[in-house]
Structure formats: C-alpha cells, structure tokens
Amino acid sequence: LVLELEGPASLLRQTERYGTRLAKLLPLVVGAERWRVSARARTRRGPVLFELSSGGAPPLPEPRPPEAVEFDSGLEREFYRSFLALGSGWEVLREPEPLVVGNSVLIPDFAFEKGGCRVYMEVVGFWTPSYLRRKLERLRALRDVVMIVAVDEEGACAHGFAELPHTVITFRRKIPIDRVYRLLKALEPPSPAASPSAPARAPPPEALKLLEGVEEEPLQRVLERLSSLGLSEEECYSAIAAAGLIVEWRGLDPGKAVVKRAPGRSGSGRSAQEPGG
C-alpha cells in the first residue's frame, strides 16, 4: 500500500501548513509491522529527501496531543468557537483520526462525540476542479460512518455532492450551527434522567458480565439482552458505557447502529494501558 499525501495549497506553492496533519498520520504508519516513509523537505540549505523505515528507525517517542487547535480557514475557526459556546453537551474535535477510504485516507474537519455516539463533519469549499473531484470520490466511497458534509454554495462547488451517501447541507458565508445541532440532536442516545434525591445506580454485575465478550454487535440485539435482565433503556446505555463500549451510529436508522469496543479498552471495561488494582 502506497499513500501520496498532498493538499490544495501545495498545488499552488510550497507550503508548511500541513505539518499538523502529517504528524497525525505518522503514528498510524509507524504502528504497522513494516513501513517506510519518504518525504521531500525544504530546509535553509535547499530541498532534501527524508527517508525512514521500520528496518532502521531509532526508538520513536509516544505521540503527543497538539497543544493548540489549528484551522484551515476563518470559517472553520468561527464554527468551532460558536459551537463550543452553544453548550450542546457534544464534544467537538478538530481533525480527528484519519478514516481509511480504499487506498487513501480522509481526515474529517470535525468530529462530534456524546454518550458514545460519534459523528464526523467535512467542510467543502472551493479549491480546484481536480481537488473537488478527489474529495467527491473519497466521500462517495466512505461507508460505515455517520458523516455530515457542509458545502459552500458560493464556492461554486455544490454540484455532485447532493448524491453522496451522507447528510449534505449547504451554506453561504457561514456554516449553519442550528442545522448541524438539529442533526446531532436526532442522533443523541437517551440520557439517564437526573435525580437529585438518589444517585445513579451502578450497572449490575450480571450486565457487565454479559457485555464482556462484546466486540461488535447490533445495538438492538445488545439492548434486548440487557433488557431481559430488567434494565431500563437508560440503564442499558449506562451499562454499555461502563463496560468500555461505545455506540456507533451509521445513519439515522437505529437498526444500523452497533455496539463496539472503544479503542484502547479491554473486555473488562478498563483501559488497556491502565494497571489493575
């Protein structure tokens, strides 16, 4: 598998704006059993070729999370800040993990998380016809994720996006936060009702035992099994979260949602890196 990485700005000039995105991809590359990286870099002494492979790489440090959120445009920065100020209860992530699409990858602009539900969003503006064509091809081939595609009408690039197998919204000058929020609201799992007089009841041991072997199963099947133990719908979702599982929504139809093991979580619900005790 060979991946060539480029961005729209690199078509016009040499640029340094993609350093953060490259840094997010490298941990995935070096995590493979065998790998090789080749990059053309610009230095003060001129262009150089950088090469590194699994056969001769020195010990690599653990990747660190970015210290600051970076944006490709003021449009995305304004949306991010406005969404945070909304207080919706959804966590918004800038440029989450890359999504594999065939022989290429797509790094969405945003991801939203709440109660184990994860929704991605890609913002499409005007670049070049070839860039938009590749973007369309990747989004058309992307499956098994919930994706919102926000398309700028004024960028003259809305043609062709309406047929995508994702939720497509259009905008002018500003991403419509209210429309995005309504879409997210429709995907929210039921939240346990707050009771000021009584603390939330911990999931019963038999519920956690039932969920130990779950790696990926349809949500409806898991809810039926938990309900057979006498749990309410809210208690079922609480048990799912306590067992280290997440609900992955694959569209607005609950019948397509699955319960799967959260990354880095063991079958006991404890983080794989967390020591016992």
TrEMBL record:
Residues 258-277 are annotated as: Disordered. This is DUF790 family protein. It comes from Thermofilum pendens.
